[in-house]
Write a structure and sequence with these properties.
The protein is mostly beta strands. The protein has a single domain, classed as Roll (10 Kd Chaperonin, Protein Cpn10, Chain O), CATH 2.30.33. 4% of the residues lie in helices and 37% in strands. The chain contains one helix and six strands. The protein is globular. The termini are far apart. The mean pLDDT is 86.
């Protein structure tokens, strides 16, 4: 079974980047210390969203949104107002 998610109003479906399991020095970070993710890629947008598009990389508030699970994958739904910035990686 597959899902097609359509966010409502000003909501945005995102796939958050997972926090690393180890530091660069090899120290394992326990789950309690990782915190919530705050970077993501936009997968779908609601009809009233104006400032962000699908495929964009964003930074959002640390405690924003609702975590949802679909087909053993974790996604988040946030409001457009929770987005702090969008970004691109450059060389």
């Amino acid at each position: 079974m597959s899902y097609r998610v359509k966010p409502k109003q000003d909501r945005i479906l995102i796939k958050a980047e997972l926090m690393p399991d180890k530091t660069e020095g090899g120290i394992i970070i326990p789950d309690k210390s990782k915190g919530r993710p705050h970077k993501a890629v936009v997968l779908a947008i609601g009809p009233t969203v104006k400032d962000v598009g699908v495929g964009e990389s964003i930074v959002f508030g640390k405690y924003a949104g609702t975590i949802i699970h679909l087909e053993n994958e974790q996604f988040m739904v946030i409001r457009e107002d929770d987005i702090i910035a969008s970004y691109e990686l450059t060389d």
